[in-house]
Design goal:
The chain has 331 residues and is an alpha/beta fold. The chain is built from 11 helices and 13 strands. It has helices at residues 11-20, 39-49, 65-75, 91-94, 96-116, 151-170, 192-202, 221-231, 265-276, 300-306, 314-329, and strands spanning 2-6, 26-31, 55-59, 79-82, 121-127, 174-179, 182-183, 206-208, 215-216, 219-220, 252-257, 263-264, 282-284. It has a 7-stranded parallel beta sheet, with helices on both faces. α5 packs parallel to α6 and α7 crosses α9 (265-276). The chain is globular and about 55 Å long. It starts with a strand and ends with a helix. The model has no long low-confidence stretch (mean pLDDT 95).
Length: 331
């Protein structure tokens, strides 16, 4: 198969590309290499993929309508793994327009490419952020998610709605994956595991929001990748569902992809302390606007579809991340 991976220089995109390499696919990856976080890390991920002869990289912005149309027309992809987006809840408070460009215009350009060029299956990244301040746990894809608390979350919910529209109108088979707090080697510098590790190893304090009273469904990167790769072969069929928040008579599917077991933030910090051999200096702060106190994924539907359950616990995952961080940054 020929597979497009958007956001291939990103954390999850890099890992998915590496997992698919050597399995007989022709893989094309795109990324605009924007400066939201250290571009050197993004380039290092691409360098890590350079030895894979079945992977090509094209520097391209999702919001480039003509460029995206030309890419789809020339390459004729069989399947698309759409992971590129402007990420970050807090950053959306400061720079809202980049979310419209990347997450709305960019997603539309991907949908149009799939529509006009016969893509068999579009698997795209949504986010646990769509659940907002939902009190019911674990979060299920059958829950109503009509009250987002950040622009980032609103764009991700919009992506789901746009995808359903294209599934219904044009028969584009789409599967959305609501990612829950992904961490591990090659992770993003704007996320807590990276920030905490960097600060502890530098002997600096860490900012801990909501005074530490938070829970996250931390999910190790290998478990995320396995779910993405397996669901790529589970193509939604028309007429197979009913009209509910997560199913449809259109070829449309929606899943949570997470560990399915929330971890207290202070316990996660303890795991980083153990892995680094350093004690955290916690600077406790109130809750940040747009943030939520806990996330917890109901992952049973994804297990039923793929047969995969997460395998890597927090202590093992954190140790692997810290070991990678020490090696990559020579600390």
């Amino acid at each position: 198969m020929k597979i497009l991976i958007t956001g291939m220089a990103g954390f999850i995109g890099h890992a998915v590309a590496k997992r698919l390499a050597g399995h007989g696919h022709a893989i094309v990856g795109i990324d605009n290499l924007n400066g939201y976080y250290d571009v050197a890390l993004k380039r290092a991920r691409l360098t890590d993929l350079a030895e894979c002869s079945d992977i090509r990289f094209v520097e391209l912005d999702l919001a480039d309508r003509e460029g995206m149309a030309a890419l789809f027309a020339v390459e004729r992809f069989d399947r698309v793994i759409h992971l590129a987006a402007q990420a970050g809840v807090r950053y959306s408070l400061e720079n809202p327009h980049v979310y419209a460009d990347a997450n709305l215009v960019g997603h539309l350009n991907v949908l149009e490419g799939c529509r006009h060029h016969g893509v068999e299956h579009l698997v795209y990244a949504s986010s646990s952020s769509v659940y907002g301040m939902n009190d019911k746990v674990p979060f299920a894809t059958s829950d109503a998610v009509d009250h987002p608390v950040s622009l980032y979350a609103a764009t991700k919910k919009a992506n789901e709605l746009m995808s359903h529209t294209y599934a219904h109108l044009y028969g584009v088979a789409t599967t959305g994956l609501r990612f829950f707090t992904v961490y591990g080697p090659w992770g993003r510098p704007d996320m807590a595991p990276f920030k905490f590790t960097r600060a502890l190893l530098a002997g600096e304090p860490i900012q801990v929001f909501n005074h530490g009273d938070m829970q996250r469904d931390f999910t190790y990167i290998d478990d995320i990748v396995e779910g993405v790769v397996r669901i790529l072969d589970v193509v939604p069929q028309p007429g197979s569902g009913t009209e509910t928040p997560d199913t449809s008579t259109a070829p449309y599917a929606l899943y949570n992809i997470g560990n399915g077991s929330p971890v207290a933030l202070m316990d996660f910090i303890s795991a980083i302390e153990k892995a680094t051999g350093r004690e955290a200096q916690c600077d406790f702060k109130p809750m940040q606007p747009g943030d939520v106190p806990r996330t917890w994924a109901d992952t049973e539907a994804l297990f039923q579809a793929t047969g995969h359950r997460p395998q890597v616990g927090v202590e093992v995952g954190v140790q692997r991340f810290v070991d990678w961080y020490r090696g990559f940054y020579n600390v």
